[in-house]
Write a structure and sequence with these properties.
Strand order of the largest sheet: 1-2-6
Distance between the termini: 51 Å
Number of helices: 6
Largest sheet: 3 strands, mixed
Strand content: 5-15%
Number of strands: 6
């Protein structure tokens, strides 16, 4: 993983494959949502066995996505936490064909999990703390890159450690999907079947 001014780019294929594995995505999401946990706690929450969960945690730790956390329990249990950060992926133009397949799998799972999480929260919600917006804007490629960096800069002040988080605050998921509208399909010539 390479640190860039805008974040940490994950370009190593092995790291991307580690992150793209669906069970690891579930584990990472669980740690992000609910904080540090042991492999046994994660296994129960996700319906997995502890051996497989431990293996997946070690693989995520190998690439810096999770880490051991000290002091969570007086017993000798191993606690894990998600490592926060601004993780970025290489733009599509710099991805190899194999990397594109892995990124497609990673994105497919991540987007589906995000939608499911939103729908669960919406069904269970009794408050008005759902922010949703869908719009179309007209941008050049350079403007889109600038817009993205401004969006990240807007979020960063709210990515506070637990000790600096106001009482009553809770984790709020934000997702930005910005992509050019696909070109319309060419109409078939008249008389063609």
């Amino acid at each position: 993983m390479a640190d860039t001014p805008g974040g940490t780019e994950i370009a190593e294929l092995a790291a991307l494959k580690a992150l793209a594995q669906p069970r690891r995505q579930q584990i990472l999401q669980q740690l992000t949502l609910h904080g540090p946990a042991t492999s046994a706690i994660l296994a129960r929450a996700l319906g997995l066995n502890t051996g497989a969960t431990s293996y997946h945690l070690r693989e995520l730790a190998r690439y810096g996505f999770v880490e051991d956390t000290e002091g969570e329990s007086p017993r000798r249990e191993r606690w894990w936490r998600a490592v926060p950060g601004d993780r970025r992926f290489p733009p599509r133009s710099r991805q190899t064909p194999e990397m594109r397949l892995v990124m497609d799998e990673l994105n497919h799972y991540a987007y589906a999990a995000d939608v499911e999480l939103f729908e669960q929260a919406q069904r269970a919600g009794t408050t008005d703390d759902f922010a949703y917006s869908r719009s179309d804007i007209r941008l050049t490629e350079a403007e889109l890159a600038e817009f993205f960096e401004e969006y990240i800069a807007l979020l960063n002040p709210y990515k506070r450690p637990e000790g600096r988080t106001p009482a009553g605050a809770r984790t709020v998921h934000t997702r930005l999907m910005a992509f050019p509208t696909p070109a319309p399909a060419a109409a078939a010539p008249e008389g063609a079947s």
